[in-house]
Write a structure and sequence with these properties.
Two copies of one chain form a homodimer. Chain A is an alpha/beta fold. Chain A is built from 16 helices and twelve strands. Chain A folds into two domains: 151 residues, 2-Layer Sandwich (Enolase-like, domain 1); 243 residues, Enolase-like C-terminal domain (TIM Barrel). In chain A, strand 11 and strand 12 form a beta hairpin. The longest helix of chain A is centred in the N-terminal third of the chain and has 20 residues.
Chain lengths: 442, 442
């Protein structure tokens, strides 16, 4: 019976701000970072998870995960497998930690939970999507904290959604092995020139991509010119999504986006504050009639906010993130909610390790929940794979392939880890501006 | 020109779980704790703040505040006074930290901001309420992050609210000096017996209190019996409030509270999830016609959630907390929002140091914002004052007095600090069950 013998937590940061990769109106110079949690079992297997952050604060999450170690160390993997809702509930409803709200607490919780799921997948030698696909519906439903969700989706409804797909699962699985899961790419980081963005789009088009996202929000003239330039260069058949990263107020979002309504935009992402359900609803009511749809999720901190966004029609695309909430358990809840309200789940991939994780959720969604969907798009960013992960995500013809390695596929190259450990790694030693709280604050 | 020469952050915990003080359905055994931040100025003055937590996790917040020190160390107090919105914006919109969401990040931000405000008050030798009362309306409005609030309250509307009270301020101030600010007390902690609660209520009644709060939610029979017992003992003229601490789902809250509608309940607090604006709205629509009103706020993590709760009629009482959000700046924004929508602000005091802080906000609200209000009630808990704070909050005739000492009045007794520092203090040394992540987790 495998027992957890050790848990290590590492702070890994990449100076992406040097090239403005990942830049948006609020995160102008992010250093894409990962808290890498490794759970070692007495069987020799290792469960791994990543929590993505933008640099400073990566250590806050690492500190928090470290404090959760006593909750898993010396427990058995079997007890986790028997009831994968139990550890989740233990952390979520911890008498004292619960006071901390979401944010760091929920992210740390997700880091630990996701590493346990990875260990489980490794023990049974299945990729994460396959482990999830093979779970009995009752187990999935038992993973979820229903306390504050049942007014929008009951346990019974969730069970029914999952049971409906049981007989079709293997056919869907076979089909997906051929098609993969359709991806889109964020090419238009705020700090890049039009020319550089177009170069990147053309390179991705050659690899089968036909959907791209651009960062917008600070200057309507500039944005109009950029969108026009790119739309003309790539033609009308290519999908364009926009992302404002919460830059606008509610009324401002409506005014701004009305001016961009003619450009055939697939969605506008985060037009306002991440937690402004009623604001999103008002924006949707104003923009949906013009053909503009809303997306959000990468900073939605709890399933309860997702519940409201999805069930009220405030968003038309749900962008789950693999490590913003409390791990697999929370994400499965949101995917089930989205299915009931017919909102496509288009996971967020802009980070380090996120693409590796979200494909599993997208595959599970298509096989077990929403069925194969013509409108699911899974974000892909084309950096921080080669040289970072032992098994980089496989993309062909603009789609994610179905991974076959056990677990999430988050094993990092030892040299990458060694060089990027913060602040001791060689990449950080001797830099003028270390990635910390004071760095880039203005 | 006073300069910040030093910032210290201390983890202080009290084993309140021994007596079940502070217990509720989710925090069954909290150890009331404080992150004590002390900012020392070259003038010799010290700015102090407290961030309240329930024990485990206090160190997470302490770690986070410690990381913010470079943003204030070696800056001048004058630069803070000149634009008290600047430091707030620097932290809130930090390119990298912003990714962390609310929770620990916003609480840590509040800890640092509130200590800077305290230093300011000390330098000008004013209690915090008086510093706030004397601020020009433009300065108050300049403290606030309006980006995501103006659809509910514009800068101009906030200015108008503040300007309207200017001519009446000194009259209000004189009147309040006589009456104080009406308080209520949470006497009915979940872990206590009916008899013990009644004893406490009678003791507080003798001190002029006529409004009390009880924890409910887990067992309707038990709650009915408790409320009936206490209502009969104290008579019909005394106000009773209930607090479910988010224990129910939306439909459950409606069903449960309908059964308690006959007991003349002033409010039901946190009937469901802290961030479920639409759920609160549905519950309000069902219960308001029965005379039952809703309160929430101690766990509302951002002004944007408050904006929705207040402007949509989802809550009828706004319970700001002094250190859940980003400090004075965020709290002033919520008090102004509440004023426009005629929602009384009834601050949350169940913690350590909270009573000391919230009275200042209540006084500012009454003098400068909402005017003297017949329905404002400020929470008071009658433990952790004597022997803890050098200047315990003064209560007489069921009301908070107007404090005259400079700042928040959070100076702690040196012996209390020494003995309660976690985990080295004498209170914690040698205990079987230290206040940590594993303690009381089940």
């Amino acid at each position: 019976m495998p027992t957890i013998t050790d848990v290590t937590v590492q702070d890994i940061r990449v100076p992406t701000s040097d090239e403005l990769l990942g830049s948006d109106p609020f995160h102008k110079k992010p250093d894409y970072s990962a808290v890498l949690t490794t759970i070692t079992s007495s069987s020799g297997k290792r469960g791994i998870s990543v929590v993505f952050t933008c640099g400073a604060g990566n250590d806050w999450v690492a500190y928090a995960i470290d404090q959760l170690v006593p909750l898993v160390k010396n427990t058995t993997l079997d007890s986790f497998i028997e009831d994968p809702g139990e550890l989740y509930q233990t952390i979520l409803n911890h008498h004292q930690l619960r006071w901390l709200g979401d944010g760091v607490f929920r992210m740390a919780m997700g880091g630990m939970i996701n590493a346990m799921w990875d260990l489980w997948a490794k023990e049974v030698k299945k990729p994460m999507w396959k482990l999830l696909v093979d779970l009995p519906p009752e187990t999935v439903v038992g993973c979820i904290d229903w306390r504050h969700l049942e007014d929008a989706l009951s346990r019974q409804e969730a069970l029914a959604i999952l049971e409906k797909s049981q007989s079709k699962k293997s056919a869907f699985e076979e089909r997906l092995k051929e098609t993969g899961v359709k991806a889109y790419s964020t090419a238009g980081w705020l700090g890049l020139t039009d020319r550089k963005i177009l170069e990147k789009i053309n390179e991705l088009k050659a690899n089968g991509f036909d959907a791209f996202k651009l960062k917008v929000g600070q200057d309507i003239k500039f944005d109009k010119a950029r969108i026009q330039f790119i739309r003309e260069a790539i033609g009308p058949d290519v999908k364009l999504m926009l992302d404002a990263n919460q830059f606008w107020g509610v009324d401002e979002a409506i005014t701004y986006m009305k001016k961009l309504a003619d450009f055939e935009i697939t969605w506008i992402e985060e037009p306002t504050a991440r937690d402004d359900v009623m604001g999103f609803k008002r924006i949707s009511e104003a923009l949906n009639p013009l053909g503009l749809k809303l997306a959000a999720g990468e900073q939605i901190q709890s399933p309860v906010i997702f519940k409201q966004m999805i069930s009220s029609g405030a968003i038309q695309f749900a962008q789950i993130d693999a490590c913003r909430m409390g791990g697999v358990n929370d994400v499965m809840a949101v995917i089930l909610l989205a299915s009931k309200y017919d909102v496509p789940v288009c996971p967020h991939g802009g980070g380090i390790g996120l693409c590796n994780m979200i494909r599993h959720f997208a595959i599970w969604d298509q096989i077990c929940v929403a069925g194969h969907s013509g409108n699911q798009l899974v974000e892909y960013i084309d950096f921080l794979q080669e040289g970072v992960f032992k098994n980089p995500v496989e993309i062909s013809n603009g789609a994610y392939g179905l991974p076959s390695n056990p677990g999430w596929g988050l094993e990092m190259e030892p040299d990458f880890v060694k060089n990027h450990i913060y602040p001791e790694g060689s990449v950080w030693r001797g830099r003028q501006e270390p990635s910390g709280v004071t760095f880039l604050a203005d």
